[in-house]
Amino acid sequence: MRLETVDGLRIATFGTGPRLIIAVHGITASLMAWGAVAGRLPDGWSLVAMDLRGRGHSAALPGPYGLPRHAEDVLRVADHVGAGPGAVLTGHSMGAYVAALAGAERDFARVVLVDGGLPMPLPTGVDPDAAMAVTLGPALERLKQTFPTAEAYVDFFKRHPAFAGNWNADVEEYVRYDLTGPQGALRSRVVGAAVLEDGRWLRTETGRIGEALSAIKAPLRLLRAPRGLLNQETGMHPDQLAAAWTARLPGLVDEVVPDCNHYTILFDERCVRTVVARLTS
Questions:
Q1: Residue spans per domain, the chain
Q2: Burial 246-257 (b: 16+ CB within 10 A, else e)
Q3: Alpha-carbon gap, residue 188 to 153, rounded angstroms
Q4: What angle do helix axes 206-215 and 94-105 make, rounded to 10 degrees?
Q5: Longest CA–CA separation in the chain, Å
Q6: φ, ψ at 155 (rounded to 5°)
Q7: What one-character-per-residue DSSP string does 250-269 give?
Q8: What is the pLDDT of residues 124-137, one digit of tens each?
Q9: Vertex 275, ends 279 and 10: CA angle to 5°?
């Protein structure tokens, strides 16, 4: 992994192959969300991931945040690494929405949305912050906490429903990368204000997301996890939502990756093999 910083954005390049994948992480994640995928790429491929502003080692970059701002950053990184129309663009969770916005602005070889990217309108009368409290409540609470040691932070994640029984070295590397602060008061690098601003945009600008999906010219694929953020039985994109969008976008290929949740789709060995195959073939 080669690290560099461009205009305040931390960028990691995994691999040395000439064929490029530009990868975007989720709302409370970091570039290391792509570590397991990057480590299993076939010869000839490289993966470029970045810490979005307000996350990881790009946490100091100021707002405004919002998904269009992230899409601009993604395209700037693509320019920096020389990613032409033959590159693949992908994103996980919120990163899939960012990838949709970026993919609407520029040609890529294909765009792969990993358990995200389909508009999820708020029910009438529901406040965006209330909706976020339901879906992101545990993650938002974590951002307020401090931990005495790195091991305590790791143990906290090991108890997360999505990772219980699914722990491995790639998950641990992802978790440890997120830590900052002095010993005795370690905390996540993620900026809470960035999460709130991005979450509001995601839930209130569904029309713009739909327009972006419709504008993508590249082959478009959705990879869905059948289980959710807390390993619950209903995934982030249920069958009914996916069916509505495959009907609206005939070029959208929808695929459920069996026996994984919103997080393990990027970390479980078997699920990762499927993600890698769809990115590279």
A1: 2-280
A2: eeebeebebeeb
A3: 9
A4: 50
A5: 53
A6: -60, -35
A7: TTEEEEE-SS--TTGGGTSH
A8: 777 877 777 777 77
A9: 75
Q: What is the pLDDT of residues 224-281, one digit of tens each?
A: 999 999 999 999 999 999 999 999 998 999 999 999 999 999 999 999 999 999 999 9
Q: How many CB atoms lie within 10 A of CB 124?
A: 5
Q: 2-280 — its CATH code?
A: 3.40.50.1820
CB 220 within 8 A of CB 250: no
| Residue 82 tokens, joined | 């020389």
Residue 70 amino acid letter:
H
Distance, in Å, from the CA atom of 99 to the CA atom of 78, rounded to the nearest integer, reads 12
- Report d(CA 17, CA 3) in Å as an integer: 16
C-alpha 192/C-alpha 171 separation (Å) is 22
Q: Is the dihedral of CA 181, 186, 192, 194 positive or negative?
A: positive
Burial class (CB in 10 A: 0-12, 13-18, 19+), 185: exposed
Give the Cα separation of 204 and 209 in Å (integer). Answer: 10
Cβ atoms of 116 and 97 closer than 8 Å? yes
Residue appearing with tokens 């370690």? 186
Buried b (16+ CB within 10 A) or exposed e, 150-168: eeebbeebeebbbbeebee
pTM for the model: 0.96
In which region does residue 113 sit, left (phi positive, over 0), alpha (psi from -120 to 50) or beta (all else)? beta
Q: If DSSP codes are grouped into helix, strand and coil, which group holds residue 48?
A: strand
Is the CB of residue 103 less than 8 Å from the CB of residue 218? yes
How is residue 68 written in tokens? 């269009």
